[in-house]
């Protein structure tokens, strides 16, 4: 995966230009697997989608880590959990609205059914520039150049970049390539 530069943004989800809020009832449904385990970190989000891309902004709060005593800073495990939560949340309204071409055959019920069992992280890298306060921070996610791959397993290749920031200059970023199986 090529290195993509992302720069911290001062925007929070509610201020993200050209994006629309993701309704809390949809967030609650999509994030139920996390709420069930007590680790829903995404508090609100906005999104915009096109035929081959999804953009989302989200606000997060990690009041207590679910797997370790508090380290006092945002770490690699939490980066992936927050990435997953924002990505799952951003794709849900895009599927409801038929915005992503390769997923137009899925209903929202299909998405819920495949959300955990058919979404895989193929590769991931992360970079931590300055310690991030887990009590309150934001993220911008861009999944772009979505492409159906026809191999032994047919899947949707979803290259993503994500950046995190807080009000005190904390910054982290990551690149993740997803594979969505069982696509229409």
From TrEMBL:
InterPro entries from the entry? Answer: FcoT_ThioEstase, FcoT_ThioEstase_Rv0098-like_sf
Q: One GO BP annotation here?
A: fatty acid metabolic process
Q: What is this enzyme's EC?
A: 4.3.2.11
Q: Which family does it belong to?
A: Belongs to the FcoT family.
Query: Which Pfam family, an example, fits this chain?
Result: FcoT
Supply the alphabetized keyword list.
Fatty acid metabolism, Lipid metabolism, Lyase
From which domain of life does this come? Bacteria
Catalytic activity from the UniProt record: a (3R)-3-[(carboxymethyl)amino]fatty acid + holo-[ACP] + H(+) = a (2E)-enoyl-[ACP] + glycine + H2O
Q: Which residues form a coiled coil?
A: none
What organism does this protein naturally occur in? Mycobacterium spongiae
Q: What is this protein called?
A: (2E)-enoyl-[ACP] glycyltransferase
